[in-house]
């Protein structure tokens, strides 16, 4: 049973790191309070996990055959990696961490399902690219509609606030639907959890991470990369949510971090590249490259030291 | 939803009543200045100057109420800052109405016959400039396009500058005492400041509109 603790730890680290991607822009454009944001996040993450979280489970468990011990180590290594990145205030991909950790064990055993891995890697690239494209379409389109509406400053603010709450809740739902597989997917294959238990435990632990330790990464996404106005924040979150939800339907766990960073960058491009904080961008990119690598090395070492 | 509309309506009503109060102050100012210019400073002028002061004080009270309402989360912070900035800068205008009346009455400024009509014209152009600003501010709360008013305000400001310069030149060409010339010049310059203030508020308004254009 102790093996499940690493899964809960992993869920907590997903929540603490990835929930920032959903509401950071809204919180730091001061449109939504932090407390409201994390409450909505927790509720919709669990809902997304319960309703649509099952698909991604099979993709991850198909990469490498898991045992109870390997599932424990993979979760532990991925969670440690994500927590390290959270402490460094970097929004990273928890699914990349998990895949890196699973591959680490696969390398040790000499067995990795390369075709499954290819699908996952293609989707990783597709996530930021997808949000960049969707943001480039949504921003001028919805902007034009909003400009044409004969509304006053109060109504405009109200529409944006509701838009941010809706897009954020949808984003949290997509996070739950997509990333719960990353958290507890490995335990289904080992038979430690049923599908329902895995989804529920995964969703709840992500929600816990969002509620307890998500502020630091929110700072990086919402404040340091590009300063966002409420409209841009709404478009960024909506684009991210659409893309991540799409991958939840496809059944591939992807990164909300890469999704939101793609969207925020896209807005930076639309508003002029000078608005992008390149230093922050470089550190985020470093986090992306480092995450699967650190998780891979950690799981390799941990499994070797503890179980071999 | 209903709470939002109620809150919005309440604040817009208060902003309207603030603008109405500034209008009252404007009308009192116009009447008081005309009395002072046409008939000179008399004991009974104090009454009309006092009315301007009271109208200004009431406008101040309403503005403070609006500020409080806005701070109670009526708008998102970015918009709140814009609206508060516009109202605070606008509030200098009734303040100027009041101080111009005091300047005339306390300094006992006598306007020579040959300058009276042009001085009144200067006041009217500046009041027209404020009237346009009022419409533009309401535009921000009711509809989006305020470009027309902004353009006209700019024209009024230029007209005010032209009248102001011509008046100052003629004042210093006249046979008045130097001290009287300086007092007259100051009141003329200060009257022209109304349209300068209008321009400052109008710039803030333009920024607020541009910021919201996507």
Could you estimate the helical fraction of the residues of chain B in percent? over 70%
Number of strands of chain B: 0
Mind telling me the CATH superfamily name of chain B?
Answer: Phosphate transport system protein phou homolog 2, domain 2
Q: Which sheet architecture does the biggest sheet of chain A show? A: none
Q: How many beta-strand segments of chain A?
A: 0
Using only CA atoms, what is the Rg of chain B? 19 Å
**Terminal Cα separation of chain B, in Å?**
25 Å
Largest beta-sheet details of chain B: none
Q: Kindly estimate the percentage of residues of chain B that lie in beta strands according to DSSP.
A: under 5%
Order of helices and strands of chain B: HHHHHHH
State the CATH architecture of chain B: Up-down Bundle
Radius of gyration of chain A: 18 Å
Number of helices of chain B: 7
Assembly level = heterodimer
Mean pLDDT across residues of chain B = 90
Task: Report what the structure shows.
The complex is a heterodimer of chains A (308) and B (214). By secondary structure, chain A is mainly α. The model of chain A has no long low-confidence stretch (mean pLDDT 85). Chain A has one domain (3-307). The two termini of chain A are 20 Å apart. Helix content of chain A is 83%, strand content 0%. Chain B is an all-alpha fold and 214 residues long. Chain B has a single domain, classed as Phosphate transport system protein phou homolog 2, domain 2 (Methane Monooxygenase Hydroxylase, Chain G, domain 1). In chain B, helix 1 (2-39) packs antiparallel against helix 5, helix 5 (113-142) runs parallel beside helix 7 (178-212) and helix 6 runs antiparallel to helix 7. Chain B starts with a helix and ends with a helix. The interface between A and B is medium-sized, with 23 and 22 residues.
């Amino acid at each position: 049973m102790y093996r499940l603790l690493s899964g809960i730890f992993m869920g907590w680290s997903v929540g603490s790191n990835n929930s920032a991607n959903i509401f950071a822009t809204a919180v730091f454009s001061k449109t939504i309070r932090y407390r409201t944001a994390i409450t909505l996040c927790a509720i919709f993450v669990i809902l997304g996990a319960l309703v649509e979280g099952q698909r991604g489970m099979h993709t991850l468990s198909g990469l490498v055959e898991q045992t109870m011990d390997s599932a424990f180590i993979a979760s532990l290594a991925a969670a440690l990696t994500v927590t390290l990145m959270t402490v460094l205030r970097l929004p990273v991909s928890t699914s990349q961490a998990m895949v890196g950790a699973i591959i680490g064990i696969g390398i040790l055993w000499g067995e990795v399902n390369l075709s499954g891995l290819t699908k996952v890697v293609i989707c990783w690239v597709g996530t930021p690219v997808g949000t960049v494209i969707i943001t480039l379409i949504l921003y001028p389109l919805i902007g034009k509609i909003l400009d044409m509406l004969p509304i006053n400053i109060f109504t405009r603010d109200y529409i944006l606030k509701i838009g941010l709450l809706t897009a954020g809740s949808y984003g949290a739902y997509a996070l739950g639907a997509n990333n719960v597989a990353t958290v507890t997917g490995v335990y289904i294959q080992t038979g430690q959890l049923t599908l329902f238990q895995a989804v529920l435990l995964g969703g709840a632990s992500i929600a816990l991470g969002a509620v307890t330790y998500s502020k630091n990464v929110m700072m990086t996404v919402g404040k340091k990369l590009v300063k966002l106005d409420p409209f841009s924040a709404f478009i960024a979150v909506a684009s991210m949510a659409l893309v991540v939800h799409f991958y939840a339907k496809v059944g591939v766990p992807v990164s909300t971090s890469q999704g939101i960073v793609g969207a925020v960058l896209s807005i930076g491009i639309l508003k002029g590249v000078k608005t992008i904080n390149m230093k922050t961008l470089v550190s985020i990119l470093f986090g992306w490259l480092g995450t699967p690598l650190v998780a891979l090395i950690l799981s390799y070492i941990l499994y070797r030291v503890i179980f071999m | 939803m209903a709470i939002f509309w109620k809150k919005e309506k309440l604040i817009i009503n208060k902003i309207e009543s603030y603008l109405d109060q500034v209008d009252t102050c404007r009308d009192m100012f116009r009447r008081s200045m005309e009395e002072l210019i046409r008939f000179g400073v008399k004991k009974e002028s104090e009454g009309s100057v006092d009315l301007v002061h009271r109208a200004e004080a009431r406008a101040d009270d309403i503005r403070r109420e609006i500020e409080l309402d806005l701070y109670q989360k009526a708008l998102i912070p970015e918009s709140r800052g814009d609206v508060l900035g516009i109202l605070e800068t606008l509030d200098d205008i009734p303040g100027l109405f009041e101080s111009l009346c005091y300047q005339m009455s306390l300094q006992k400024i006598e306007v020579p016959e040959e300058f009276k009509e042009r001085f009144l014209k200067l006041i009217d152009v500046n009041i027209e400039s404020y009237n346009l600003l009022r419409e533009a501010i309401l535009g921000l709360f009711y509809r989006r396009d305020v470009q027309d008013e902004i353009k006209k305000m700019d024209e009024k400001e230029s007209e005010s500058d032209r009248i102001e310069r011509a008046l100052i030149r003629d004042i210093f060409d006249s046979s008045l005492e130097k001290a009287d010339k300086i007092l007259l010049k100051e009141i003329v310059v200060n009257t022209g400041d109304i349209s300068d203030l209008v321009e400052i508020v109008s710039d803030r308004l333009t920024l607020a509109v541009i910021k919201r254009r996507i």
